[in-house]
């Protein structure tokens, strides 16, 4: 009896110690103050930030979210601060459907968009912006900064003024100017670059194009960085370090990619794939939509939040509508009626609405296919739901996203210029050929098969950075190397130098030996005479 009491007492002590250890372990990550800076008005980009903020808030953290939109649906613990002077990122119409233009023109078109990033920096980091001035001079302690690595490096200057670890994220796959600044490999021999439409099996010409695109992307971004560095120095003071150096000190990088959908590639320990992070719980469709589709199969059509229907010519939209009419299935088209061009004849089986519950529609069992511009988040939702796609890529990473789903056998793609000739036949192919649905179901299973949900994965690693004070053990020393050291050009130069010296010595020795032999032969010939 006494022994049993001792055992029970020891067990209680053991359990108490373990509980205290756990509390101490997680205590460093609890109730952290987190600053999230997403001031630019790009809804799809802000979606990821909001989801991460909600995940952190649910774990007891406080998040101050500086953004260009105000969303009243966010939970407790998230303080939204609306940033004045934030403007919509307007996509120039000449960039739409830029697949057909030359390589140089297409890459130039993409990086002209960087100039819009410079303009956003000027607008938002101005001395007249009271909100950002107050943030720059804040005395509030922040344990971590969450920020997007996209077109606005100037905002990384807050990491200098606030002095907190950085967690960067991007709402796309890795960018040409993103990977190398945190030391992540970006070898163009097998990794397609963000704004290309290349697949995993590249020809020699495609690898040349991919290499050129990567190098040109880095070059154009470097030019832009000079402007943003100047803006940062004017706002934060001349003592602000190089933005490149600040970014290279990033503790964690969250990528909106996953090897099942995007090509597998090597990533550092501090680069975490969280594709599908924005996907929430499914809800049943409302009576409004159920009344439209009934028990029938149906089609969903959307060009996302950045591109509006009026960005495409009326005749192309008319060809799409005519193809919908021939199919005679209900079509849910996410479009604001006031944005639909005048003169467009919308068939009776096509229903338009400014907002639709996209995920719930895509996961409905009666959907036939999703007609999309291949924006990454919409593509991920379709993959999650196992839905085939008809892709009409328009800009930026949409060509790469479209190529990825084509390679997986779940989509058919058509260039914008060929919509009129092909669109009807492609729709019929998607509906009548069962392979697209079968491949989509298979990819959906692969995409979902993870040890943790993407949001839980992101929150875990952010808290890991909090627990370990910036987690320097995750960072690669490659960020400290000069470019010629990273690519071993100095080592190659030394080896080449030694090889030249060795060959020179061998040549000189051989030449001298040959000369001696000739001289000796001449002496012997004279003796014989």
Automatic annotation (TrEMBL):
Record-annotated membrane-spanning stretches: 486-510
The protein's name: UDP-glucuronosyltransferase
GO molecular function, one term: glycosyltransferase activity
Source organism: Cryptolaemus montrouzieri
Family as reported in the entry's similarity comment: Belongs to the UDP-glycosyltransferase family.
Gene3D superfamilies with a match to the protein in the record: Glycogen Phosphorylase B
Keywords recorded for this protein, A-Z: Glycosyltransferase, Membrane, Transferase, Transmembrane, Transmembrane helix
Keyword Magnesium: no
């Amino acid at each position: 009896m006494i022994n049993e009491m001792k055992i029970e007492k020891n067990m209680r002590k053991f359990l108490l110690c373990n509980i205290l250890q756990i509390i101490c372990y997680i205590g460093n990550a609890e109730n952290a103050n987190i600053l999230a800076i997403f001031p630019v008005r790009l809804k799809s980009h802000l979606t990821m930030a909001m989801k991460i903020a909600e995940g952190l808030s649910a774990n007891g953290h406080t998040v101050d979210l500086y953004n260009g939109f105000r969303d009243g649906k966010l939970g407790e613990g998230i303080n939204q601060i609306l940033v004045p002077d934030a403007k919509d990122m307007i996509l120039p119409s000449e960039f739409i459907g830029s697949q057909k233009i030359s390589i140089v023109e297409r890459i130039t078109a993409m990086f002209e968009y960087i100039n819009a990033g410079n303009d956003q920096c000027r607008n938002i980091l101005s001395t007249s912006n009271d909100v950002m001035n107050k943030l720059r001079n804040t005395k509030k302690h922040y344990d971590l900064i969450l920020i997007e690595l996209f077109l606005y490096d100037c905002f990384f200057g807050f990491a200098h003024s606030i002095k907190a670890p950085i967690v960067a994220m991007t709402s796309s796959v890795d960018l040409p100017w993103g990977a190398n600044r945190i030391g992540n490999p970006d070898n163009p021999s097998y990794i397609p670059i963000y704004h290309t439409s290349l697949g995993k099996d590249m020809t020699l010409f495609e690898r040349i194009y991919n290499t050129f695109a990567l190098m040109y992307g880095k070059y154009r971004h470097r030019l832009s960085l000079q402007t943003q560095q100047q803006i940062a120095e004017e706002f934060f003071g001349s003592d602000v370090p190089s933005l490149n150096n600040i970014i290279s000190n990033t503790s964690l990088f969250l990528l909106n990619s996953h090897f099942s959908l995007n090509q597998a590639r090597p990533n550092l320990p501090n680069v975490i794939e969280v594709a599908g992070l924005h996907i929430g719980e499914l809800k049943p469709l409302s009576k409004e939509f159920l009344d439209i589709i009934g028990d029938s199969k149906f089609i969903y059509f959307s060009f996302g939040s950045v591109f509006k229907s009026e960005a495409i010519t009326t005749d192309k939209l008319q060809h799409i509508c005519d193809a919908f009419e021939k199919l005679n299935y209900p079509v849910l088209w996410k479009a604001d009626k006031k944005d639909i061009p005048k003169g467009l004849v919308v068939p009776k089986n096509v229903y338009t609405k400014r907002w639709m519950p996209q995920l719930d529609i895509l996961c409905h069992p009666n959907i036939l296919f999703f007609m999309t511009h291949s924006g990454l988040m919409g593509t991920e939702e379709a993959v999650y739901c196992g839905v085939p796609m008809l892709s009409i890529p328009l800009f930026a990473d949409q060509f790469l996203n479209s190529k990825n789903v084509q390679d997986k056998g779940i989509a058919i793609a058509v260039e914008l210029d060929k919509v009129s000739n092909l669109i009807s036949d492609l729709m019929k192919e998607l509906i009548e050929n069962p392979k697209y649905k079968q491949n989509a179901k298979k990819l959906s299973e692969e995409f979902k098969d993870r040890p943790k949900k993407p949001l839980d994965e992101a929150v875990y690693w952010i808290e890991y950075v909090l627990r370990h004070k910036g987690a320097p053990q995750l960072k690669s020393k490659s960020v400290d190397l000069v470019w010629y050291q990273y690519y071993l050009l100095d080592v190659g130069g030394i080896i080449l130098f030694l090889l030249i010296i060795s060959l020179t010595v061998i040549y000189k020795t051989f030449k001298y030996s040959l000369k001696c032999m000739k001289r000796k032969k001449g002496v012997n010939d004279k003796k014989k005479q």
